Amino acid sequence: MQRFATFMAEGLAQAGHDVQLLKPPPIFGALRPSQNGVGKWLGYLDKFGCFPLVLKSAVKKADVVHVCDQGNSFYTQFLKSVPNLVTCHDLLAVRSARGEFPQNRTRWTGRQYQSMVVKGLTGAQHIACASEATRKDVLRIVGIREHRVSRVYNSLSYPYSRMPISEAASRLRSLSVEPTDAFLLHVGGNQWYKNRLGVLRIFSHLVKLTLPESMKLVLVGKPWTAEMRQFVVANDLGKVTLELTDISNENLRALYSTAHLMLFPSLEEGFGWPIIEAQACGCPVATSDRSPMDEVAGTAGIYIDPEDLQSAAVVLKSALEKIAGMRDASLRNAARFRAGMIDSYVSVYEQVCNEKAAARSMN
């Protein structure tokens, strides 16, 4: 979400707008920086106790305030005097707190926090959603009128494009990937909905359908979980799987540009940025046959059931036999997301400003 906020600030500035990017300064959190335990609660003091004072002062000079992450919708209570909107990337945490995902239970404190998120969204003047699937979730769960909710697709937050193999080769070798290797790619974190263990399971089935060691799997993102490591060992996949962390954008671009395809079998998403990143580099994407993945991958996507592992492997095997013809379609679909987000948000800014002005004139 910080990447999104930075991307928005840079894009608006390039378009000629004055932008101030605000975030809670680490005061109490600096005493013990951590995402867990005491450090986490000290960070909450900064977020809920100190930052509202900063925000109240700053909004006096603002034409419009854009809360770039639905997790910060708490702040809308301080924005009633100024045109405002919240970007909602997804409501997965809210839905988990409501019990919609039994596989991802939420503690009492988490349920209280997500109730605050929903209340904050209710108080927003406008909500911009990253996908149609997220927009439908907002209308269903938040319960506000449809004219206050719009869909604004994300754009590429980095200029991903096809990298010539001659340029990619040295980058691949630095990552312990031979340029001649045939490999599948996965990009994602360890959140439950990313289904990374499912990635390994699908690949294991694919290995059984093809010649041993004829295809490798590269997973980019967070370090593997203990369960993932155990699966790799138990299924003798150590020689054909590779774990990569802390990868630069250019090295990721090299991987996207040379992978046979990207496997992205998420159970849920708010948007699915890696889909368009891969496609922008001409890498075909095999992803889940559910929203919003099908919404984003479009007609260029290769669709699988992320929970039917054997059938997914069969689909992949068939796709790999005709992969060359899918690269141009991937590039065409990614072109839908290369630009337009900033202009779309400027239109929303104008809308909320006009609405607020009309409301003031009536009063």
Overview of this protein structure:
- 45% of the residues lie in helices and 11% in strands.
- With 363 residues, it is an alpha/beta fold.
- The protein folds into 3 domains: 43 residues, no CATH class; 118 residues, 3-Layer(aba) Sandwich (Rossmann fold); 173 residues, Rossmann fold (3-Layer(aba) Sandwich).
- A 6-stranded parallel sheet has the order 7-6-5-8-9-10, sandwiched between helices. Strands 1-2-3-4 form a 4-stranded parallel sheet, with helices on both faces.
- α7 runs parallel beside α8 and α10 crosses α13.
- 37% of the residues are buried.
Summarize the structure.
This protein has 363 residues and is α/β, with parallel strands linked by helices. The chain is 45% helix and 11% strand.
Could you spell the SSE succession in H and E letters?
Answer: HHEEHHEHEHEHEHEHEHEHEHHH
| Overall pLDDT | 92
Using the coordinates shown, work out and report the CATH topology of the largest domain: Rossmann fold
Architecture (CATH level 2) name of the largest domain? 3-Layer(aba) Sandwich
CATH superfamily (homologous) name of the largest domain = Glycogen Phosphorylase B
Q: How do the strands and helices of this protein lay out in sequence?
A:
Blueprint: H1 2-14, H2 37-58, E1 65-67, E2 84-88, H3 92-97, H4 108-122, E3 127-129, H5 132-141, E4 149-151, H6 165-174, E5 183-188, H7 196-209, E6 216-221, H8 226-234, E7 241-244, H9 249-258, E8 261-264, H10 273-280, E9 285-288, H11 293-297, E10 302-304, H12 309-320, H13 327-334, H14 341-362
Parallel strand pairs: 1-2, 2-3, 3-4, 5-6, 5-8, 6-7, 8-9, 9-10
Helix pairs in contact: 6-9, 7-8, 7-12, 10-13
